Amino acid sequence: MHEIVLATHNEDKISEILQVLKKLPITIFTFKDLRGLPSIIEDGRSLYENAFKKALIISTHTGKIALADDSGLEVDFLNGEPGVYSSRFSGPGATYSSNNKKLLELLQGVPPEKRKARFVCVMVLYFPGGSSKTFKGILNGEITTSPRGENGFGYDPIFFIPKLGKTLAELSREEKNKISHRGKALKKVYEFLNRYFVE
């Protein structure tokens, strides 16, 4: 059986990744299965740099294929911020709630047509021996004026998808995975691994 390690401690991300990759003929390990995985400082200047660093370190540490992701929210009115700093946008000790609060405050009074935003996800598969593959997914939408929905995590309650008339937090996990930035990147990962392991 082939093995992959997920290079993240974020249980929300792990849950979404497992949901999509569960049908592959592979064993997927997380930090709960492999004790002592190193913590990694995400100090890259791009989503790709962070994802690559995490995948490289975890693959080197375990000797297994590693899958890492870094995602960010880019808001047009804020010139692409928070971007690579999305998870720590509100400073040290940032939480989902505090990040959302800061973003909504920065956009207070900004009209709907200027609240365009996109979620970007970059995933890197790193293989023992040094090769890697990169996958990307993008979801366009806009920022609401207040949180809506109880599902999802991160900026999901304030990320509105006009064609659905809902925020990401108002979708089920299955619905979200079909359209989200991470879901799109994961679909590419799934298709690649299915060829890689089966053919």
Describe it.
The chain is α+β, with helices and mostly antiparallel strands. The protein has a single domain (2-198), classed as Maf protein (Alpha-Beta Complex). The chain has helices at residues 11-21, 47-62, 96-106, 173-179, 181-198; strands spanning 2-6, 26-29, 65-75, 82-83, 116-126, 132-143, 159-161, 166-167. Strands 1, 2, 3, 4, 5, 6, 7 and 8 form an 8-stranded mixed beta sheet that branches. α1 links the parallel β1 (2-6) and β2. α1 (11-21) packs across α5 (181-198) and α4 (173-179) packs across α5. The longest helix has 18 residues, at 181-198. The chain starts with a strand and ends with a helix.
E-strand count: 8
CATH third-level topology: Maf protein
H/E topology pattern? EHEHEEHEEEEHH
Derived from helix and strand composition plus strand pairing, the structural class reads alpha+beta
pLDDT < 50 stretches:
none
Query: Counting H and I runs of at least 4 residues, what is the number of helices?
Result: 5
Estimated helix fraction: 25-40%
Shape: globular
Indicate the mean pLDDT. Answer: 94
Topology (SSEs and partners):
Elements: E1 2-6, H1 11-21, E2 26-29, H2 47-62, E3 65-75, E4 82-83, H3 96-106, E5 116-126, E6 132-143, E7 159-161, E8 166-167, H4 173-179, H5 181-198
Parallel strand pairs: 1-2, 1-3
Antiparallel strand pairs: 3-4, 3-5, 5-6, 6-7, 7-8
Helix pairs in contact: 1-5, 4-5
